[in-house]
Amino acid sequence: MTQSVVVQVGQCGNQVGCRFWDLALREHAHVNKKGVYDEALSSFFRNVDSRRTTIRVASQPLKRIFCYTQAVLVDMEEGVVNEILQGPLREVFDSTQLLTDVSGSGNNWAVGHLTYGSAYREQIVDKLRRAAEHCDCLQCFFLIHSMGGGTGSGLGTRVLSLLEEEFPDVCRIVTSIYPSAEDDVITSPYNSVLAMRELTEHADCVLPVDNQSLVDIVNKIKHMSQGGKPGSVIKRDSAIISGQGGLSGAEKPFDAMNNIVANLLLNITSSARFEGSLNMDLNEIAMNLVPFPRLHYLVPSLTPLYTLADVNVPTRRLDQMFSDAFSKDHQLIRADPKHSLYLACALMVRGNVQVSDLRRNIERLKPSLPFVSWSQEGWKTGLCSVPPVGHSHSLLALANNTCVKPTFIDLRDRFNKLYRKKAHLHHYLHVEGMEQSCFTDAMASLSSLIEEYHHLDATKGRLMPDAPRLTIAT
Amino acid sequence: MSVVTVQLGQCGNQVGQELFDIICSDAQEGQRKAYSESSRERFFHQSAQGDLVARAVLIDMEPKVINHSMTKAAMSGRWTYGHTSHFGQKQGSGNNWANGYCVHGPRHREAMEELVRREVERCDRLAGIMAMMSVAGGTGSGVGTYVTQCLRDIYPNSFILNHLTWPYGTGEVIVQNYNSVLTLAHLYRLSDAILVHENDTVHKICSQLLNIKHISFSDINRVIAHQLGSVLQPALTPDSHGVYSRNPLGELVSSLACHPEYKLLSVCTIPQMASASIAYSTFSWPGLLKHLRQMLISNTKMEEGIDWQVRPPSVHPAAAERTRSLKGPGFNTSLANLLILRGKDVYSTETDGFQDPALYTSWLSLKEAFNLWKSPVPFNKYEKSATLVSNSQALLRPLDNMVGKAWNMFASRAYVHQYTKFGISEEDFLEGFTSLEQVISSYGELG
Ligand SMILES: Nc1nc2c(ncn2[C@@H]2O[C@H](COP(=O)(O)OP(=O)(O)OP(=O)(O)O)[C@@H](O)[C@H]2O)c(=O)[nH]1
Ligand SMILES: Nc1nc2c(ncn2[C@@H]2O[C@H](COP(=O)(O)OP(=O)(O)OP(=O)(O)O)[C@@H](O)[C@H]2O)c(=O)[nH]1
Ligand SMILES: [Mg+2]
Ligand SMILES: [Mg+2]
Known about the structure:
Chain A: Residues 51-276 form the Tubulin/FtsZ GTPase domain. The structure holds 2 protein chains of 2 kinds. By secondary structure, chain A is an alpha/beta fold. Mean pLDDT of chain A is 90; it is low at 56-63 and 309-313. Chain A contains 15 helices and 12 strands. In chain A, the strands form 3 sheets. In chain A, strands 5-4-1-6-7-8 form a 6-stranded parallel sheet. In chain A, 54% of the residues are buried. Chain A has helices at residues 10-31, 39-42, 79-86, 109-119, 121-133, 151-166, 188-202, 211-225, 255-273, 283-289, 315-324, 355-365, 405-420, 425-429, 436-458; strands spanning 3-9, 45-47, 67-69, 71-75, 98-100, 138-146, 171-178, 205-210, 299-303, 342-351, 379-384, 393-401. Chain A folds into 2 domains: 3-405, 3-Layer(aba) Sandwich (Rossmann fold); 406-459, Helix hairpin bin (Helix Hairpins, Orthogonal Bundle). Helix content of chain B is 45%, strand content 17%. Chain B contains 16 helices and 13 strands. Classes of the chains: A alpha/beta, B alpha/beta. At the A-B interface, helix 10, helix 12 and strand 11 of A face helix 3, helix 8, helix 9, helix 14 and helix 16 of B. One magnesium ion binds next to helix 1 of chain A.
């Protein structure tokens, strides 16, 4: 079994990370009825005391936990991390995993990336190495951060390049929370564009998640669970935004949104943790979904989100789950993959689903989905036998699709609006090491990325002739 | 003589487990002592405690599948895998042939060779080695190729058969065509014969013949295992003089893979049906063989949906040289066929339909092109069953598709960086393409 380390940076990164840990514990407690430390648990948790191997069992929520998360928590202010340390999850973190400062990065990428990045470089590397030493086969780093603030976006992407330097062979999968257009951080377009360049150059895969999409999903689920037609009612505790059965009691503002992201992470790692008839290991994600190194943005969609999930599901519902994965309102960024071009698509299925269900649905959906000419069968599939808590099955789709382009164009426009007026620039240029060229280079990187997607888009619908085959002299 | 099986990667380990299971239960059911003993000797040895232990080595670069297969075998209560006959690692090859072939293979060479050597030394006499794997992933394909290469070096005179599972055409691994091309191009140089099952075909058998609604990999693997078992279980060959042939792999290879350009073997079996229906069905040999022959010439891998219009070309006795224009549309030309009949009344069965020169290329004599094995013991609950192993154009189209798709992808250089990272260059790809285009052209010229 391999291990992964989660690196959560900034407020958003830490809050999402904590939801992940809470739900991961809930999931393992649910599967692992005996409550012993097992192989599945070893991929994200390390055993603290080999004599005492108890994990929390759902029915006995207060039983002590004797394992630590494989996590590194970084924030340049104390609030969020302190809250975690006072909360019910405190027992799964030990103080050597934490790194905090007091003042925050003030929504300034440059402060996070350069000032704190240089000041804390050694300490960060040290924490990462320590986390790595606890693993006997480290496979993947999961970085969680927001794009809009200063710490997550600035220091988070600094951590990313440190990971590349220190652990070049370990896969780096980044979950990036993109700001909505109404985001209250005025400088978020700067921070996001500056961070984008780092993501494009140093990540193996990026899973972009858009706060606006999360808000929309949460609202829709809440709306449906309050009233609505009988039969379409969502049971609150099995909804994907629910944290019930977890350790944390009262829900905080972002929790419902963050639970969705946590579920994304649970599903993406499920095959690495549990058995299945078609395993999909973490190193298969980049291998299958990234045809060219820079084009590694994978649009996630989760299903079921809105359907009643805990009834015994007939085939039609199962098929609906597959259809939904391609619809607009199940994407975690605002995008329409069906009307854009697929470079590759992964279907990661959990629960009681067989190959025949996969084949049937791929055959059914394929005609309506445009794939790039050189990969008309760009499907990657995985079957994991353990479903999420409260569900009989679930599906995570990861699409390498040109539908990310509008999000990037939108970001570029918002950046330009500020940059044309030189608004707030001086806050950045004051920071040691920060120059105007950082802005122009980041912009150039984003523009060329958009251009690359654009070129691919242009091939859509055009009949591309097959490459002439090699001829054999006979 | 005994066969040592090497199971590689998820697919190899899952299919292999089903194969041993069927072989073991079939040998137990057969009333004939000689048959059982011969089968046992081939595929199992006895532990000190008297348990049947598969002559198999399990190799994967991750632990989950091996654990699962070993547990399943132990739970059968009939046989087990050797407690120390497996080699697992922690992290799979990530669907990357280059990672398997260039990194994992060389890194673990000694350990893997040692396991096989131990298994070989346990055999009184080695009939050959069978390596089982998929071609689409990274471990079965890449490590499997590497291990085959090592075994070829250690056992230059032994028969090596590769059993390959080809992926669904519509894909489960996006780089499956690259991995397949690299695997096949290498194995073509190393292996004595390459026996292929296509997942699409087997899936269809499950749904249309066995009427399974929710088809799992286990269902698919049982069909593959049934077909393979009916090839590998003991049978009487023309020159075995009434005793079960001792060298299944050697006989198989020498009947079918007579030329280094032609090593691709396909299998079909008749009848196949839901086990509940077997008891209520009766079959006649002429009926079974008539269907099987039409399945061969029309290249249909199951008895449903056979195109009865396809006819062999008429052979003019005067003109030994047959030409394309004489060949009917959709006709599948064979280089060589091996027909295996098992069950009731096999000795009195007519097999003339397969000894028709029109079925074969002109450059082999019928005696070389057609072989027949028989066993009076019914196989795996079927009172009568016939299996045809064929070296024909049957795999030409899927191979051509595979190479074509890989070539299209290669033309845009998509995913190539994932391979160069581990030391496979664009030239290596080109070499692979070149040698498979050669194979395609050779099979194309058969007809
Ligand atoms: N989905 C989600 N978004 C969050 C959360 N917390 C903050 N955000 C978003 O993240 C962006 C702000 O970044 P933060 O993560 O708060 O900032 P930070 O990384 O702590 O950086 P500084 O506070 O500048 O040091 C805004 O777009 C917020 O909407 C959260 O818990 N969940
Ligand atoms: N028939 C059949 N095919 C399988 C089975 N398991 C996997 N496959 C096929 O095998 C291919 C994937 O290769 P795997 O065998 O899973 O890969 P692997 O050899 O373990 O290599 P890595 O996982 O990449 O290290 C796909 O084409 C699957 O359809 C199985 O049990 N039966
Ligand atoms: Mg903050
Ligand atoms: Mg595998």
